[in-house]
From TrEMBL:
GO terms for molecular function: metal ion binding; oxidoreductase activity. Keywords: Copper, Metal-binding, Signal. InterPro entries: Di-copper_centre_dom_sf, Tyrosinase/Hemocyanin, Tyrosinase_Cu-bd. Residues 1-21 form the signal peptide. Pfam families: Tyrosinase. This is Di-copper centre-containing protein. Residues 279-290 form the Tyrosinase copper-binding domain. The keyword Signal applies.
């Protein structure tokens, strides 16, 4: 056990700390003449950012919400640059979920969102992430998470609406549903959605917290399950669990869908498979989903930077029982419509490759009850040993 721990640790840290200086073999195979990643942006957990960095991020998002859209020709309701990103997600929602390139597509979207914040809105930091596991210890921990803080966060829950108006989802213990009344986005007008609608339809940002669900579906144990998988298709399937062709199964919700429905409930934007990027917290949630994939990849980078498997057609096996299309390969292409060029998956496998250039801080957030502040601590070997799995199923 100790030896395997050590071995795993070496596997985990070596590519980050040591091997970055040397060429890794897969890069020669897929050299595409792009740039070189010398100073990766370091993505950190939201609550570990100093307040002035939190403000800088939120100001940049608000800036994106004032710049004119670039995709109005294709998305009539897109008014702002922020809408552009929500719009491309709405348009592609039925092909990018419950498929093998779900992780890749969302990683690519986030990269361009982070790029827009930096290049068009003067943001100097990296895209932060929201580690939901820190807020899953109790209902009040979830409700009082620093992420919902009205002054240094994204605002909180909407007031309770008895009838959610959502025929597709039944979420036990939902507590909100109305317009987010506080925080920096309480006055923002979302233009797109609900669901597949890309016509201009002004609406407020809605949240519908389900705190009891958050204590069940955002836990460290749940996050750990996919990490037990050695092959990407099963890691990915378990990360996306919950949504099926015949409906959404709350009791199977994964660390991807769990936060969507714990924040969005029935009536909130985050629970809308199409329009969820209307809530700015979507990007912090998906950065965390990406962080998990990054951790999984870095346990065995030589293999896992080249492992792209799973169906190309939504709900094909293992997401459903169909075998309608081919499985994805590293040459399968994804795109963001007018927002970014189509690229083969191999370009987004390595976050420090010739296209992407970011990493995640090797730290964890710890609450200090005396100062009532979250502080960063270095991760121990055991904590980051995601391969130690007592009961591997595959
Ligand atoms: C909620 O709405 C249902 C159906 O309209 C109604 O029967 C019920 O009494 C309402 N509950 C509350 C607490 O208002
Ligand atoms: C929202 O609008 C109201 C009324 O115009 C204003 O009082 C409030 O300060 C605004 N809030 C934010 C976060 O901009
Ligand atoms: C895709 O991969 C699965 C195994 O994960 C396999 O059962 C299936 O036959 C493959 N489909 C095709 C079209 O090769
Ligand atoms: Cu999505």
């Amino acid at each position: 056990m100790q030896l395997s721990r050590l071995f795993n640790f070496l596997l985990f840290i070596s590519p980050l700390a040591v091997c970055r200086a040397v060429a890794s073999p897969h890069k020669e195979v897929y050299s595409s003449g792009g740039g070189e990643c010398k100073n990766p942006l370091v993505r950190r957990e939201w609550r570990l950012l100093p307040d002035h960095e939190k403000k800088e991020y939120i100001d940049a998002v608000k800036c994106l919400q004032t710049l004119p859209a670039l995709t109005s020709n294709a998305v009539p309701g897109a008014i702002t640059r922020f809408d552009d990103f929500q719009g491309v997600h709405i348009r592609q929602a039925e092909i990018i979920h419950n498929v093998g390139f779900f992780q890749h597509w969302h990683r690519y979207l986030l990269w361009f969102y982070e790029k827009a914040l930096r290049e068009e809105c003067g943001y100097s930091g990296a895209q932060p992430y929201w580690d939901w596991t820190l807020d899953s210890t109790s209902e009040s921990a979830f409700i009082n998470s620093p992420i919902w803080c009205p002054t240094t966060g994204f605002g909180g829950n909407g007031p309770y609406l008895n009838v959610s108006g959502n025929p597709f989802l039944k979420i036990p213990g939902r507590t909100g549903g109305g317009c987010v009344p506080d925080g920096p986005f309480s006055n923002y007008t979302i233009h797109l959605g609900p669901r597949g609608s890309i016509a201009k339809k002004p609406q407020c940002l809605r949240r519908d917290f389900a705190p009891s669900l958050a204590t069940l579906r955002l836990t460290k144990e749940l996050v750990r399950l996919p990490h037990c998988e050695k092959n990407f298709d099963w890691y990915d399937f378990k990360s996306q669990a919950g949504a099926r062709e015949d409906g959404f199964f709350v009791d199977q919700a994964s660390f991807h869908s769990g936060p969507h429905i714990s924040v969005g409930g029935e009536a909130g934007h985050m629970a809308d498979v199409y329009a969820s990027p209307g809530d700015p917290v979507f990007y912090l949630h998906h950065a965390s989903v990406d962080h998990e994939w990054w951790k999984w990849q870095n346990v065995d980078p030589e293999t896992r930077f080249k492992d792209a498997t799973g169906p190309s057609i939504r709900y094909d096996f293992p997401f459903g029982n169909h075998f309608r299309g081919p499985n994805i390969t590293l040459d399968f292409r994804i795109g963001l419509s007018e927002l970014a060029p189509a690229v083969p998956l191999h370009r987004v496998m390595d976050t420090e490759g010739d296209l992407l250039c970011y990493t995640y801080a090797k730290e964890k957030a710890v609450y200090d009850p005396t100062t009532k502040k979250w502080v960063a601590e270095e991760l121990s070997v055991e904590e980051e040993d995601w391969e130690a799995c007592k009961d591997p199923e595959h």
